[in-house]
Known about the structure:
The complex is a heterodimer.
Chain A: E1 12-14, E2 17-20, H1 32-36, E3 37-38, H2 56-60, E4 83-89, E5 95-100, E6 113-115, H3 117-123, E7 149-155, H4 158-169, E8 174-179, E9 189-196, H5 209-212, H6 240-256, E10 263-271, E11 284-290, E12 295-300, H7 305-316, E13 327-332, H8 347-356, E14 363-366, H9 369-375, E15 381-391, E16 396-407, H10 415-424, E17 434-442, H11 457-474, H12 479-486, H13 506-515, H14 517-520, H15 522-527, E18 533-545, E19 551-559, E20 565-569, H16 578-590, E21 596-598, H17 621-627, H18 646-650, H19 652-674, E22 690-692, E23 695-697, E24 704-705, H20 706-715, E25 719-728, E26 734-738, E27 744-747, E28 751-756, E29 761-764, E30 766-770, E31 784-796, E32 802-812, H21 819-839, E33 872-876, H22 894-909, H23 920-929
Parallel strand pairs in A: 2-13, 4-14, 12-13, 16-17, 20-21, 32-33
Antiparallel strand pairs in A: 1-2, 3-21, 4-7, 5-8, 6-7, 9-17, 10-15, 11-12, 11-14, 15-16, 18-31, 19-20, 19-25, 22-23, 23-24, 25-28, 26-27, 26-30, 28-29, 31-32
Helix pairs in contact in A: 10-11, 11-22, 16-19, 19-20, 21-22
Chain B: E1 2-8, E2 11-18, H1 24-31, E3 51-54, E4 60-63, E5 77-79, H2 92-99, H3 109-125, H4 133-141, H5 152-164, H6 166-169
Helix pairs in contact in B: 2-5
Organism (chain A): Roseiarcus fermentans
InterPro entries (chain A): Ald_Oxase/Xan_DH_a/b_sf (IPR036856), Ald_Oxase/xanthine_DH-like (IPR016208), AldOxase/xan_DH_MoCoBD1 (IPR008274), AldOxase/xan_DH_MoCoBD2 (IPR046867), AldOxase/xan_DH_Mopterin-bd_sf (IPR037165)
Pfam family, one (chain A): MoCoBD_2
Amino acid sequence: MPMSRRNFVRSVVASGITLSFTRLAGAAPLDFDTRETMPGRGSWNPAIHAAGRIDGVAKVTGAKLYASDFRAGDMPGWPSKTAHALMLRAADATHVFRGLDLSALGGALAPTALVTAADVARIGVRVPAFYEGDLFCPVDTTPLYLGQPLALLVFADFDLFDQARMALRDAAFAKFGEETAPVETPGYGAFRFTRVGGPTPEAPDVVSPVKDGWVSPGKFETAPNGKRPIWARLPIPTGQDYARVAAIGEQIRADLATHDPAVLVLDREFRTQSVDPMFLEPESALAWYDAGRETLELVLGVQSPYEAADSVAFMLGAADQAVRPKRIAMHFASCGGGFGGRDHTPFPLYAALAAMFVPDRPVRLANTRFDQFQSGVKRHAFAMRTQIGVERATGKIVAFAADHALDGGGLANFSANVATVGANAALGIYYAPKADITTYAFHSRGVTAGSMRGYGTVQTMTALETLVDEICATLPLDPIAFRRRNALATGGKTLAGNAYIVSVRTPEILDKLEAHPIWRDRADARAGAPAGVLVGTGVACAAKDYGSGADCSLGSVAIDARGMISIACDSVEMGNGIGTAAANRVAAHLGRIADEVATARIDAFDPLGLVTSSDPYRISQEMQDAAQQNPRWVPAISSASTASIGAHVGTHAAAEAARIVFRYGLWPAALDLWRVPKSDPLAGAWRQALWKDGELVMPGLAPLALADLAARAHAQNGVTAAMTHGFNRWAWSSAAFRVDDEEAWSADIDALAVRRGSGDFVRLDRSAVAFPPTDYNRIGTSYASLCGALVRVEVERATGAIRIARAYSVLECGRALAPEIVIGQAQGGFAMGVGYALLESLPPYEGGPGDGTWNLGRYLVARASDLPLHALEVEVLAPVEPDERPKGMAEVVMIPVVPALLNAIFDATGCRFRSLPVTQAMLADAIRTGAPR
Amino acid sequence: MKSITVTVNGVAHGPSAVRDDLSMNDFLREYLGVTGVKFGCGVGQCLSCAIIVDNADGASETSPTCIVPAASFDGKAIRTVEGHAKGGELSALQRAFINHFAFQCGYCTAGFLNEAQVLLERLARTPIARADLERTIAEALDGHLCRCTGYVKYHEAVRDVVLADSALYLRKGSP
């Protein structure tokens, strides 16, 4: 039986609601799943010959792929008409909300349904903990944040909806009363990361987060001072873990302040701005509550499908019976960009609510771009103070201290995580024997900040790399030489006190940067600047973590009797090429590119029967040891497609499944076709077999076509499909399985089901399972990719207009699964870095995006004319060995571009900017006044 | 209300009664189901919504649809991303976009395809010198926003389509 998206039913009980993802019976040929299955059955698959993405044809022909493309009439079995929902949001967070004024609609445009805070309270809606805060601002309270929803209005058809939104566009639909202070809430998280190494790099640390645990201050200032944490050690009887670490941290700072003439100490502040992910498809969803079946169906485009399903189920799980579905069926579409902004977004909750209030009518909720600016999660604005001490004689860092404050906006979302990830990246590519970093994420009335490409690290590494440039200019010391002397060596300890478990290739990156003409010829370029133009060159490096510390991979691979390959994985396609990467990784084991790749399939893995419990970040070792006795238990089942994990995690389970299909399906078939008996030593030589031009090759034996192998594997009831689960907490889980009677199969997976011939999947119990220890949660990261950037800028003296004349990015990412997609992602990361450094900015509060008036044009992102299209060079280092595992690279390229630009601007103008973005007006002013910034 | 007739990819639609303030983007996506035309910003800044308008004089141009009323397209013939492939065969541009891995999420692809197609047709009518090619492509495509790719591969794809058929698009003997 060929694997199809329709053949699997997921039935987990969440909040008393069955989550299901099946297709409806009797679906039309072009049902949702078929549209979303890349490359589309029967179509030309450009990836077969590495001539394009596996979703290439669909995307150049305008196929329905994105959530915003679907209407009720596109969904087989749904009613044909679509109702449309309009969200009204607060543009004020300093006055009391007194209710709605919908008089602009008149009687003719009265909505079919109106959903407010009172309505959701009345039916017993629960707010998932992650989104804690009122879903809608209650009347007679001050909105928690700018852009907080006030109401959902549902209209029977598009025409009414369109007229209503026109009528309300300029209307004062929200009534506000007296002025108040912004709503205060506790901060989102405060942490201190302090490490002091032993007398030698190999010696145990005196203190480190891995050794001593993560610590938080226990005391906070009282309002009206913003409830900031009190970092200083207090003479208090509790919180001794913090007190000990804080004492050591304060000593590091005291040492930096001693004015030792042998040590150059720089102490600088740096501010970054709030920006929008600006993925091109605004968030959109389609929802239908079929009251007869008591089933809620949703079409969504999110990076975190499992979380979305879980959150909607929780939200409605205790609602009144009339509005509590028994079953929720989810359909996940490709995303028109993500960049983190679709990871854990509350948008699906509102789409689900809209549907529950108009039973039996499919309803569409779609953001306009104004809405998206007003409500979509943002990249955190950081305020940072960084102190660095460098021994003048050696040019080596002796101590480092930093304080970070993040504006998290209205809801907590991922603010605490962004704070800790940013802090752990604050040392970039460097080693410091002593470091002390505090970080604090706070609530504000701004639009909620959350996950976005860079995730705290682009902020802290920009502050670092510009400071390093200043150090080098002050010592003075060549910037490449400084980086060589201070780069974290392989095996060296990160801020948290652990070493990376992947290649650390800083020396090669630095060699490449130093040898590149942009760097080599920088003095000549400066000297040869045309009249009226200032020319400068900048360099910067970044080491970017990938992974979140609790990453899951679900993947299955099936081969039919004709040799057609199908892959399903739980990762989401948002442009990152996960489908193509998975197909390429599987092809290494099965000889050809898959004919069908289905992404965002959290439903396809029922045969594994997975169960979970607790929180993978907080579970104790004792609890994990006990829980793993259940062979179906895993620390987490599915995770978001985020944190640059596409290649590393997203393709992992499918690759492991493919290895099993080969070993226990195709290889025995090959032996049979070659007439090699099991007793022959050759029978165990499966690792030596190679695929070449779609045929399996062994020296001295006839090459075998995949189709023949597949047919024989089916005929002899071999393994023709496998599905696996993997879990990564800075290391993979591993287990052994008995697939046949001869040997145990050990792999970096913790669950396995196999299908023999054309039978059904059968789950195999694991033995010798090893999950990464729970104290690995103290690790900041064990995975990092490195990138260096060079940029040459030309600044027009009279106007401050800046042009990037040339640029070079060099990165390493292990084995690039889809090299052209890696290059494309790198180019896109470069462009996003340029936008962040020079163009993009959102005011945090009033006058910012929360007022609903922001859009493109006012918000500037990089256009082609802002970039050196024909002088942008990207180099990807070859893997250290042919089978080096792929490493995440979706974020790292963007990061060094930002400080490299600022360093180049300094080189050109002598102006040191310490905030982002650096606009043309700022440049013109700085050049005119000659003031170093 | 106005009654309009629009030819989309060679198929006449209408007459349809539309409100004066109904946007062409909503007309195409909500009433005709032509969702290959995307909605990006609604203010004419990203051009993910751009379509091709075929004028009576044989020349074509692109137009945003998000800020233009449907009523203004009455009597016009337009092309969208759904109309590029003929008889199941992708156009040279579509193939080049795929071969160059020009797009990632693909949401801006329809706009780029339409703009580049209009450019190709313009060059076929009025070939340019080889030396002007990159600049011409850059000027043609610069209004289109892409957040994923950095634009490089889009431009390379268009350039390669031109160079692969240089006798059609470039002036003979031009530098």
